[in-house]
């Protein structure tokens, strides 16, 4: 009987919607919440264990199943749960995938099943109201210390500001929603709730690194920033659909990591730098947590004269790492070197994705600015 019940649960995975984790979309879920009626992956099952008042989990293959539990799973399933718990997810709200950090997945799961935010829209006020203020720990640009700073997001003014003191009249920085991006970077920042915010200052990228001890707070900030971007883009592109706008709300970097680089004359030695590929901007930093990039390279499309070559010119000297990459732009060549072959392959793939993508009209304006940079 126990085997038959387990087999019956396994067969439910063949039903539409059940072949992927209900929460992050990972394929072949091995676990189930027998109180919510959803099939989930191992990673998400660990988060469900932390909300036992709402969700109780079992292994589909290893645990014993009671008849009533099997019947409950059969009468529910992932599609039914989505209808019930995700009926009012705002279009701007970030739906995490299996590759996202633990924090985003945990807060998505808690928002759905514990706080019922997507069945009771009034609970979405912290990130839907168009205005948000509060304190975040911000990393100091020069000393690396995290200090509490007051942040104010206002959609009406189209900006995110922060103040060095709560009673300060003037903000230390004003970040325009138009050019703002936010991405969770727990490993880089050294805190599980670490958020990197970037914005353009004089058309150069500026980084700030923040966190909040409360996971819900920092994810609410993240979604409030996405909401502000969404509403800005709706005005900027009045004919665009939600599906067109949502991918533009925030972006993860295509690739990050250390490479060696040499200067424009290619006669000086190679130096190790931290590189970030953000859309068409390749930025390099002395340290991953620097506020400003040492330099930025625009990478356009093949049609505009950009290519990526495997290896370095034969005469190249001064690099310690053996696996070279040459980026050819209409103006010059950039010589880079990776420590391992697998890193080189990953960077080449990231660069080629960008080069193979036709340029958008607004990207030509960005390219022109790069060409006129001193």
From TrEMBL:
Name by which UniProt lists this protein: Arf-GAP with dual PH domain-containing protein 1 isoform X1
rRNA-binding found in the keyword field: no
Domain Arf-GAP: start-end pairs: 7-126
One Pfam family hit: PH
Keyword Metal-binding: yes
Keywords, comma-separated and alphabetical: Metal-binding, Zinc, Zinc-finger
Family matches, as CDD domains: ArfGap_ADAP1, PH1_ADAP, PH2_ADAP
PROSITE patterns to which the protein is assigned, alphabetical: ARFGAP, PH_DOMAIN
PANTHER family, alphabetized: ARF-GAP WITH DUAL PH DOMAIN-CONTAINING PROTEIN 1, ARF-GAP WITH DUAL PH DOMAIN-CONTAINING PROTEIN 1-LIKE PROTEIN
Domain PH stretches: 129-230, 252-356
């Amino acid at each position: 009987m126990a085997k038959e019940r387990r087999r019956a649960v396994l067969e439910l995975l063949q039903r539409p919607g059940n072949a992927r984790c209900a929460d992050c979309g990972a394929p072949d879920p091995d676990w189930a919440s027998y109180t919510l009626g959803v099939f989930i992956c191992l990673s998400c099952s660990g988060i469900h264990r932390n909300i036992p008042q709402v969700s109780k989990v079992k292994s589909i293959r290893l645990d014993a199943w009671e008849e009533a539990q099997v019947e409950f799973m059969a009468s529910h399933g992932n599609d039914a749960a989505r209808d019930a718990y995700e009926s009012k997810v705002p279009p701007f709200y970030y739906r995490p995938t299996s590759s996202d950090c633990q924090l985003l997945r945990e807060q998505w799961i808690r928002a759905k099943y514990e706080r019922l935010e997507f069945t009771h829209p009034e609970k979405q006020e912290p990130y839907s109201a168009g205005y948000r203020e509060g304190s975040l720990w911000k990393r100091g640009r020069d000393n690396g210390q995290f200090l509490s700073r007051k942040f104010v997001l206002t959609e009406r003014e189209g900006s995110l500001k922060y103040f060095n003191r709560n009673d300060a009249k003037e903000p230390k920085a004003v970040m325009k929603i138009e050019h703002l991006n936010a991405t969770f970077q727990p490993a880089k920042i050294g805190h599980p709730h670490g958020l990197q915010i970037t914005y353009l200052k004089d058309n150069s990228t500026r980084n700030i690194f923040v966190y909040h001890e409360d996971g819900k707070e920092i994810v609410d900030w993240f979604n409030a920033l996405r909401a502000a971007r969404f509403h800005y883009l709706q005005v900027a592109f009045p004919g665009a659909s939600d599906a067109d706008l949502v991918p533009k709300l925030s972006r993860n970097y295509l690739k990050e990591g250390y490479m060696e680089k040499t200067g424009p004359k290619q006669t000086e030695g190679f130096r190790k730098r931290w590189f970030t590929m953000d859309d068409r901007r390749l930025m390099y930093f002395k340290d991953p947590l620097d506020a400003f990039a040492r330099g930025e390279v625009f990478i356009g499309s093949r049609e505009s004269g950009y290519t990526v070559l495997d290896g370095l010119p034969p005469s190249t000297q001064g690099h310690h790492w053996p696996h070279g990459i040459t980026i050819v732009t209409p103006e010059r060549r950039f010589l880079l070197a990776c420590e391992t072959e697998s890193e080189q392959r990953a960077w080449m793939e990231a660069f080629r994705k960008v080069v193979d993508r036709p340029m958008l009209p607004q990207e030509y304006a960005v390219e022109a600015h790069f060409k006129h940079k001193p």
